[in-house]
């Protein structure tokens, strides 16, 4: 398979990581374009979450490079990657349930502020200005996800869908250019999933770029502009949903016994094909 041209918002070249002598991700070369929705799919154990952990700075690769907006970010720490414009959510909804929705989302904005511990202890002018900026940034993020009216409710009192939106707002509060969504529709019913798809489309139309790991093929095929398929840690296919759904390597590796009328076929029928 020819290598992808290295001209995306985020580019990886020969990316890999080994755990205990085993390759969790191996020699992946791909791009995540700006202004689009890129889905990363594959069977369980394919390396999808590990790939996300690499590009978001949670893991340091043992091989290859990661470039974001042309800058080499391969060995930057997570907070440094976030500060450059990459934010992510996680498979499980990670929110501060005891805080108000607004207070929780304000935490996501703190990466953009300068006040330190001493400022916080002494309540300096810089700390107060940063707190005001964080509150304003959090409210903008809540407006983007449709939760501004819920800002002062306890986050734990929201529905599963509401809590998912809080998690997305926490990521948006850091003002990213690229949003990484790790199984955003996990635990959501079909109606909630449709509303989530609409939200993701709105965010991209507003100028954001999105990459997501997701198992729900109806969501992937109906939402993604581009798909990367991993299998045993290696990239085996990439392209539009229609192209990927017809790829023999994908059918063999991803669907197995579902190859005839399985998930992928249903997903294409519901989406782009």
TrEMBL record:
<dbReference type="GO" id="GO:0015188">
    <property type="term" value="F:L-isoleucine transmembrane transporter activity"/>
</dbReference>
<dbReference type="GO" id="GO:0005304">
    <property type="term" value="F:L-valine transmembrane transporter activity"/>
</dbReference>
<dbReference type="GO" id="GO:1903806">
    <property type="term" value="P:L-isoleucine import across plasma membrane"/>
</dbReference>
<dbReference type="InterPro" id="IPR051120">
    <property type="entry name" value="ABC_AA/LPS_Transport"/>
</dbReference>
<dbReference type="InterPro" id="IPR027417">
    <property type="entry name" value="P-loop_NTPase"/>
</dbReference>
<dbReference type="GO" id="GO:1903805">
    <property type="term" value="P:L-valine import across plasma membrane"/>
</dbReference>
<dbReference type="GO" id="GO:0016887">
    <property type="term" value="F:ATP hydrolysis activity"/>
</dbReference>
<dbReference type="Pfam" id="PF12399">
    <property type="entry name" value="BCA_ABC_TP_C"/>
</dbReference>
<feature type="domain" description="ABC transporter">
    <location>
        <begin position="10"/>
        <end position="257"/>
    </location>
</feature>
<dbReference type="GO" id="GO:0015808">
    <property type="term" value="P:L-alanine transport"/>
</dbReference>
<dbReference type="Pfam" id="PF00005">
    <property type="entry name" value="ABC_tran"/>
</dbReference>
<dbReference type="GO" id="GO:0005524">
    <property type="term" value="F:ATP binding"/>
</dbReference>
<dbReference type="InterPro" id="IPR003439">
    <property type="entry name" value="ABC_transporter-like_ATP-bd"/>
</dbReference>
<dbReference type="InterPro" id="IPR032823">
    <property type="entry name" value="BCA_ABC_TP_C"/>
</dbReference>
<protein>
    <submittedName>
        <fullName>ABC transporter ATP-binding protein</fullName>
    </submittedName>
</protein>
<dbReference type="GO" id="GO:0015192">
    <property type="term" value="F:L-phenylalanine transmembrane transporter activity"/>
</dbReference>
<keyword id="KW-0813">Transport</keyword>
<dbReference type="GO" id="GO:0042941">
    <property type="term" value="P:D-alanine transmembrane transport"/>
</dbReference>
<keyword id="KW-0067">ATP-binding</keyword>
<dbReference type="GO" id="GO:0005886">
    <property type="term" value="C:plasma membrane"/>
</dbReference>
<keyword id="KW-0547">Nucleotide-binding</keyword>
<dbReference type="InterPro" id="IPR003593">
    <property type="entry name" value="AAA+_ATPase"/>
</dbReference>
